[in-house]
Design a protein that fits this description.
49% helix
């Protein structure tokens, strides 16, 4: 996507007072650490408050996010966005398809139902080597990219991004 320099500058502005919930699956701990490292760097650059919770696997992420969103709302301290981080590596059974599809569906359902920025940073790969390539902040940095996406949506929701008119 090509953006104007003013749009690019808007996209990098800090978001004062924003709160982001990171829900992280720790099934592949080393990969989770890489994803979290990339995401943390990007979120810190935006000056947002980050709360993190870990869950056993990617399938548990949507439920944990919903539980914590409800708890935060009850405390009158809602989150501005949710970032899901995890990894699903294809195996010999159909379990991969179930986890990849249902975790994505759960996150999308949560985002649409609540009109809330919820970004799916769950890697779905065939091999561990592919996962490392994508998770490593020094390589493809998918954790950082997912964090940038949630920040972009939070800016949009807060009205911090000005829509551009087409000619």
């Amino acid at each position: 996507m090509v953006t104007s320099s003013s749009a690019a500058a808007e996209a990098e502005q800090p978001i004062p007072g924003a709160r982001i919930l990171v829900v992280e699956a720790r099934f592949y701990a080393a990969l989770a650490d890489l994803l979290l490292d990339g995401a943390t760097r990007r979120l810190a650059g935006a000056g947002v408050q980050v709360d993190r919770v870990t869950v056993p696997g990617s399938l548990e992420i949507p439920a944990a996010a919903a539980i914590l969103l409800d708890a935060a709302a009850a405390r009158q301290a809602p989150y501005d966005g949710v970032l899901a981080l995890g990894c699903v590596i294809r195996g010999e059974t159909s379990h991969y398809d179930i986890v990849a599809t249902e975790s994505a569906r759960g996150l999308m359902d949560l985002a649409v139902a609540r009109a809330l920025p919820v970004v799916n940073g769950i890697l779905t790969v065939n091999t561990e080597a592919q996962a490392v390539e994508r998770a490593d902040p020094a390589r493809l940095d998918k954790g950082g990219h997912a964090a940038a996406a949630v920040l972009s949506l939070v800016r949009l929701k807060r009205g911090l991004v000005t829509p551009e008119r087409l000619p």
